[in-house]
Amino acid sequence: MIDVVVQAVTRPVAGVRRFVLARVDGQPLPLAAPGDHVDVETPCGIVRPYSLCGDPARQDVCEIAVLREAQGRGGSRAMHDALAKGRRLRISEPRSLFLLHSGASFIRLIAGGIGATPLVAMAHHLARAKQPFDFHYCARDRESLVFLPELERLVPRGALHVHLSVGEDARRFAPDADPPPEGCSVYCCGPSSLMEAVRVAYAGLCPVHTESFKPQVPDDAMAFEVVLARSRRTVPVKADESILVALWRSGIERPLSCETGICGTCRTPWCGGEPEHRDNLLSAEEREREMLICVSRCRSKTLVLDI
Ligand code: FES
Questions:
Q1: What's the CATH number where 293 sits?
Q2: I need a labelling partner for 282 at 20 to 30 A (CA). Which of 53, 144, 151, 260 fits?
Q3: pLDDT confidence band for 163 (50 / 70 / 90)
């Protein structure tokens, strides 16, 4: 982890704070790729992934934008309430789960709400590289367009398309009414309904890359049971819940933080059954004996955890 200090905080729109972070020791930050995120130890101790939304070529500072989620577990609220200019915190090195691939002759960026963050970093990169791209920016209303002034500077003239859900100029994005040009690659980040609509509309037409920090339970997920070898308990896991949630529901408290398979807090040893690893952290060797139970599941009817 890297010790950083908050150099500036802005409030571009209601409910969103943008933080400019620099290393405490004044050294350059590791070079980030467009689309990268960092894991942030929030002031309440929960680790949360946030996409970098500034210019990825800069190493003096990095920027994240945080939407305050009233119903969340407190990470975003702590970021809003406790992080003022001068406050220190720790972040990971940049991590790449949403890479801008080379080879496409045209790039389409499709953003929904605060999901625009990694795509704004990509827009910085594409504008600098003078690579042709367009940007579809979907939001609830004009007041929610966090990055509009920046995108108006970065996106080529006539290639920034704003789609609003409510208001006088409401016009929702309809991906099937706007097919991608030949040779295009699409990058989409936002609500799962938007990403699914884009995937369906552009299937067979061009590659569609998406990113979500919410744990995805696969459509064909099955219920199974977890046997706890040491405490000799058996816990049923429903098709639409994680092992971690099932354990907590049964009164078994296990450490948790990100709940997205990236921080490793819920690392748990297993000793039977057939785990289905769905994290982005463990090595093949580690997976032989451990699993991240906030996202990983089981292919067999029973999974045995060594706890
Ligand atoms: S809680 Fe972070 S990996 Fe499971």
A1: 3.10.20.30
A2: 53
A3: very high
